[in-house]
Design brief:
The chain is mainly alpha-helical. It has helices at residues 4-47, 51-64, 69-80, 85-98, 103-115, 119-132, 137-150, 160-175, 180-192, 196-209, 214-226, 230-243, 247-278, 288-295, 299-306, 312-318. The chain has a domain at 283-320.
Length: 320
């Protein structure tokens, strides 16, 4: 029996199958190449600080390859840094669906929450980032900032945020002792809690690591003023202003605010330290809008509202 025709016919589907398979592989390869190309172009623009220009390329990259977690991450960063927090959060959620322990996605999502004055949610995300990767200094630094932002007078009894911030600043610096930003952030924290000597040490450390930042000299000028070291304060102020003239208004406003609020701040610090052992809430003596002002650290407004007065701004902020 002549079976040549059978072998030819049997071979036709196989040839077609091979052609289809090659075409499909080429299609997938092209799609991946396009996605990679879009992502690389987006990343190049992003790193040039052209966030808005990068967004269409990130959008294309996640359409072409929706399983690329890095594309979703950077898409979120670009949207977040152009004030579209909804798209930023959606991007981070997609990245976390692809990798449930994607530390950088937790970190970047936490930053969005912090920008939107939601420190408690930010702390949860920064903690998740640390759980996934405990060796990254910036995760502790941002969580310390969130604890700093979350602190309110009604927390005096446990000091939970205060103690957590101190611990996180220390760990951030231990992991990256050359990070001047960490020392600068802790300097600001020290200043807010009236620990001026610790603040001066942290500002000095930050300046040793970065001598070209006007803000560091401005911050140190404010701390030296608080310590009563006027000549040194003025020297730092002059240096900051020579580097960036805008620092003049910042320094004057900071020092003026410090001088005006020093008595109130010291009273609050005494209550803070006393509250650590007693569990007493210093805002319990107020009620209504005055108590809300107290819990927001606005003691002058609390005094005005508690006395039956209060400005229109006080009423708008704290009246309900």
């Amino acid at each position: 029996m002549n079976t040549t025709h059978l072998s030819v016919r049997a071979g036709l589907p196989r040839a077609r199958s091979c052609v289809l398979l090659v075409a499909l592989l080429l299609l997938i390869s092209c799609s991946r190449a396009q996605a990679a190309g879009a992502f690389e172009q987006a990343l190049r623009l992003y790193e040039l600080n052209q966030r808005k220009e990068a967004i269409p390329y990130f959008d294309r990259a996640v359409v072409d390859d929706p399983n690329r977690k890095e594309a979703w991450l950077y898409r979120g960063r670009a949207y977040g840094e152009t004030r579209n927090d909804g798209e930023a959060l959606r991007s981070y959620e997609r990245a976390l669906r692809l990798d449930a322990c994607y530390a950088e996605a937790f970190f970047q999502r936490g930053r969005v929450y912090l920008w939107n004055n939601n420190p408690e949610q930010a702390i949860r995300d920064f903690s998740s980032a640390i759980r996934c990767d405990a060796k990254v200094s910036k995760y502790y630094l941002q969580r310390a900032s969130a604890h700093h932002q979350a602190f309110t007078p009604d927390m005096l009894g446990s000091q939970v945020h205060y103690k957590a911030a101190i611990s996180d600043y220390a760990e951030a610096i231990r992991l990256d002792p050359q990070n001047w930003n960490a020392f600068a952030a802790r300097c600001a924290f020290d200043y807010d809690f009236l620990d001026y000597r610790a603040g001066l040490a942290d500002c000095n450390a930050a300046i040793r690591l970065n001598r070209n930042d006007a803000g560091l000299y401005a911050n140190r000028a404010a701390i030296l003023h608080a310590l009563g070291r006027g000549d040194e304060s003025r020297a730092d102020a002059a240096r900051a202003i020579s580097m960036d003239p805008r620092m003049g208004d910042f320094i004057n406003d900071t020092i003026r605010t410090h001088d005006r609020a020093e008595a109130t701040r010291r009273q609050m610090l005494e209550e803070f330290r006393a509250g650590a052992g007693s569990g007493r809430d210093p805002c319990s003596s107020y009620s209504g809008s005055a108590q809300r002002a107290c819990r927001a650290h606005d003691m002058p407004a609390a005094g005005r509202l508690g006395g039956g007065g209060g400005t229109r701004d006080d009423q708008q902020k704290y009246g309900r």
